[in-house]
Write a structure and sequence with these properties.
243 residues; alpha/beta; Rossmann fold; 6-stranded mixed beta sheet; 8 helices; globular
Length: 243
């Protein structure tokens, strides 16, 4: 990480400290814009999609994740979209400020009631990331922005994540991953390497691995808990994890 990157991190840490100490007004205190991207490409069958969607709802409403959402007074903005082929992305949950347990429950109910938009298209992750960058442009003004890419396969249509990061507005955006080790034609090692080398971006970026869609809830819960828990003030990001 260069000097400018360290300076931005220190400025954001100072801003977050002000929020945690109550120096910022509630209207300006959004600490994180969190955008979750669900893979609905053809490698994900109907049963797996139900496990994915239900797992996300269960994770969001778990005791651990609820506690992380409301660990401090500063709220989190949450949105969810589906992605598959080049032109196949759909919003599942529009930007919602999670400022109360009722708001979190309402968001979870919206996701639970959603229906899969596509089921026969390939894995166009670069286009999916570009769509996510555009969604972040209309997100509430928050101190941090994170996209979570969940998927069970590598990019196989159009440009990949690296080009997306060059062509779209990803400055100061962290991209984490949820690797679903489910597709028979992709080994876990290959998929993890792809996420590590191509998908993860930004200081502190990380991935969780689900051993099949049956394990999706556990992996999503762990990832959300880690993302939503307020960072330790004064801890600098590990430059080895920067995208």
């Amino acid at each position: 990480m260069g000097q400018h990157g360290q300076h931005r991190s220190l400025v954001r840490a100072a801003a977050l400290l002000a929020v945690l100490l109550g120096a910022a007004s509630p209207a300006a205190a959004c600490r994180l814009a969190l955008l979750l991207a669900l893979d609905v490409s053809s490698s994900v069958d109907a049963d797996e999609d139900r496990l994915q969607r239900g797992g996300l709802v269960a994770a969001l409403t778990s005791q651990q994740v609820r506690a992380a959402f409301f660990a401090v007074d500063a709220p989190v903005a949450l949105a969810v979209y589906e992605w598959s082929g080049r032109y196949n992305q759909e919003v599942v949950l529009e930007w919602t400020l999670i400022d109360s347990p009722a708001a979190l429950l309402s968001a979870a109910e919206t996701i639970a009631a959603s229906e899969r938009s596509h089921n026969e298209f390939p894995t166009a992750m670069g286009y999916a990331l570009g769509y996510g960058a555009e969604m972040l442009r209309r997100a509430p003004n928050c101190l941090y922005q994170t996209i979570d890419m969940a998927g069970d396969g590598q990019n196989n249509e159009g440009f990949g994540p690296r080009l997306a990061y060059k062509e779209f507005a990803f400055q100061d955006v962290t991209v984490n991953g949820l690797v679903v080790n489910a597709a028979e034609f992709t080994s876990e090692t290959q998929l993890i390497d792809f996420y590590r080398n191509e998908v993860l971006k930004g200081p502190g970026a990380f991935m969780e691995v689900a051993q099949g869609f049956e394990d999706y809830e556990r992996a999503m819960r762990r990832k959300l808990e880690r993302e939503l828990t307020p960072p330790v003030i004064g801890a600098l990001p590990d430059p080895r994890q920067a995208g």
